[in-house]
C-alpha cells in the first residue's frame, strides 16, 4: 500500500499540465504489486478459507478501504483527472483512451472526490465501517456454513453422488481431522445441490 501511494503521489504532485500518459496511463500502471497480492489473497480466501486467513482479512480489509479513500479523495489527483476529462474531446485521444478517461472520472466522482472536506471525513469513516461490517458478516457466514455441515460415517449413505463428490466429501472431512468420514458442507442457505443426487432422503444437510 505504501508503494502504491508513493506512485499515486508522484502522479498527483506532478507540476506539469496533466496529460493522458502522465496521469491516466500512469494510474493504470500503478499499484501492480498490491493488485497482484490482493487477487491472490482474496482468491485464496474465497476458494479455501480458514480461521487464520479470515483474521487476516478482517485486519486488512479496513486498511484497504482507507487506502482506496486516500486515492479517490485526493484533490490534486482528481484535479488532474478532471482536467483531462474536461478536454477529452480536444486532446486527440484514441477511442480506447477516451474510454479510460470517462470511467476514471466518473468513478472518482461517485467515490466522493467532489465532496467538501467535512463530508469526505464522514465518508472515510463510513467506508471503513461498511468494510469492517461486511468482512465480519463474511466470517460469520462461513462459520454458519461450517456448522451446518453433515458428517457421514457410512459411504453407502452417499449412494447417488459421483465419485468426485464423494472424494471431495472425504477431503473436507479429513481437513477437519475426521478421517474415514465424509463431510457434506452447506453450499448456501436456501438449496443444497447434493439433494438432487442423494438417494438417501433421510440424509439431507441441515
Automatic annotation (TrEMBL):
Annotated InterPro entries: Pept_M3A_M3B
Naming one, the record's GO cellular component terms include: cytosol
Q: What is this protein called?
A: Peptidyl-dipeptidase
Q: Example GO molecular function term?
A: carboxypeptidase activity
A Gene Ontology annotation in the biological process aspect, one of them, is:
proteolysis
**What Gene3D superfamilies does the record point to?**
1.10.1370.40
Q: In which domain of life is the source organism classified?
A: Bacteria
